[in-house]
Amino acid sequence: VTPSRPSRKTIATTPSPAPFASPHPAWLPDAALDLVRTGTVAVLGTGRADTIRAELDGAPVAPPDRADLVVAVRDAVATAAELGLAGDLTQPPAHGYAVVREAGRTVVLGADDVAALHGFWAVVRERAVARLRGGDADARGGAADAVTTSAPLQPIRVLDHWDNVAVHPVMGQVERGYAGGSIFYAAGEVRADLSRVRAYARLLAATGVDDVCINNVNVHAREAQLLTDDLDGVARIAAELRAHGITTHLAVSFGAPVLLGDLDTADPLDPAVAAWWADAVARVYAAVPDFGGFVVKADSEGQPGPFAYGRTHADGANLLARALAPHGGTLVWRAFVYDHHQDWRDRRTDRARAAHDHFTPLDGEFEPNVVLQVKHGPLDFQVREPVSPVLAAMPRTRVALELQVTQEYTGQQRHVCWLGPWWEEILGFRLDGARTVAQIVAGQDGSNPAGGVAAVSNVGADEFWTGHPLAQANLYAFGRLAWDPTLAATDVLDEWIALTFAAADDAALRRLRDVLHRVMDDSWRRYEGYTAPLGVCFMVNPGDHYGPAVDGYEYSPWGTYHFADRDGIGVDRTRASGTGYTGQYPAPWRDVYESVETCPDELLLFFHHVPYGHVLHSGATVIQHVYDSRADAVEQLTEVEEAWSSLSDLVGGALPAAFDARVRERLAEQRRSAVEWRDQVRSAFFRRSGVPDASGRTIY
Ligand code: BDP
User: Fold this and answer.
1) pTM confidence score
2) What sequence ranges are listed for the domain Glycosyl hydrolase family 67 C-terminal (predicted)?
3) Which domain covers residue 317, as residue numbers?
4) Is residue 445 among the annotated active site residues?
């Protein structure tokens, strides 16, 4: 019996009950701004310097050589003396900022106006964190004299919105959205009231995100028309984002020339098609002069692409890249290309191989303004996958890493699942044995061109932005780790707590910090603990991808199998006897993953088919691990609920009552769902294997 569960469609399309223009302030409540508004201030420069002035509204203004806090755009300042500083003027790094602390004053210098804005938010953040960590008065205002600089490692830091302009009959308004409707669109149009978009841009600017793609990569008819029929709407959105230094991008259909009825072909080598795209791009730039570029999902899950014309993906990407190049635009082409009609009876076919097989022969063939966007794992945003080998396999191509902030496969913003630790692991993974994924995609050592990082946003018109209020931390962390991937996830969580609960008094803030870490720190591993084991992936309900269905995709053409039978489980992806996928990795991973002896436990079933009695490095057998971790993870939820309840005296004060109520409602659903996962996975493997649970816990 499957307990009834809320359907994804309902969640995605429920309009927010809250007034559209007054959402939860997330990590920028007034109290956070008060940390910099108490002393005197001065802002120098134009452009987004006006945005900083607006943030500091209410603070006493003083001349720049005396103000306690000065924020300046580099070209608005000639000498250090103008800022009341001794010595030579500090130079901010390209695209970044310098913070100079001298004689109790704080001076921020941005390389340009957007960098000044980032530097401003850095000061707010530092003061909030100093307070959280019990810093003294000096740390809150101006600490000891020091100069710090910061610049983003990744040139592209983009959030992709899978928002449909018109509500899609199956996918709703936001595909894989778990936070209400779209902040951009309502009733098939760009919203008249874009106040939420502006508030969103403000939140993103404070993290370091600088690009947003405003519509779904699955481009349906109405979204395709954005390009031609609603550039005014796009321009209105771009204006809101621009105020906070965010550049607008559009996802377009490769088939647009045909889809929009103008031509009978979209062949990338046809001059009429190239001319069509050149015109379309010119119109976009006429409406949005600082437009960022296009994102394309082609030949994937039903989207049109160059294969239909016998052309390569380099031909396809270059067509659009050449149209964008004269305007300085970027073409992001997704590497998520695989056969979703595969023969599930054939054990040799392997979806995990697809992107590498398909794209690496094209390395060196892409125009310089093409960025290939690669999902972090070879399958599809699972709770555990190995890092995609494609990220290190195309040294002559700009490659961007794609993460998923929206929790499609990690609890759909009904379960607490803090993804900071997962991303820290991915970004820090030494994929070619020497360089981390973050360094590779940033082109840090110059041995490959720079790409960046992208992620699917988790935001909607929901009162708390993200459905589960604690899922805000994932959005915050994406921006921070995109800017600086060397940050520790636990410190990023501290930042989010310090900023979000800036109104709490010192004692309440410390308690909130303690409880939030208890609830969130291990939540990703806990989620992994009660869902699909040891990197085997999927086991979710087909379609909505929520809740357990052990064999949900096992006999379907999507290429996501576990091959569990009475003897064993897992996918043999070795060179010796399986699909050969391990051979796509550079050393040392090609050998580490090839052998059951060296393959890490958490990825064992991604790479190997093993008997249930196989002994893990942990000492447990595979089957006992399946039993134990599911039961243990559910037991841990009791501690989580107790920790949250211990905050009850803060409700209505430091912890807003509606925030608390939403978290409690979600914790109850998480427990219900986790119990369902535990019982279904444990029973399914007991029935297949016949091996009893050595711990004696009940199996249904
Ligand atoms: C899958 C989602 C699907 C997306 C696809 C993508 O289930 O809704 O369209 O990824 O990334 O995970 O294009």
Assistant:
1) 0.95
2) 466-697
3) 156-500
4) no
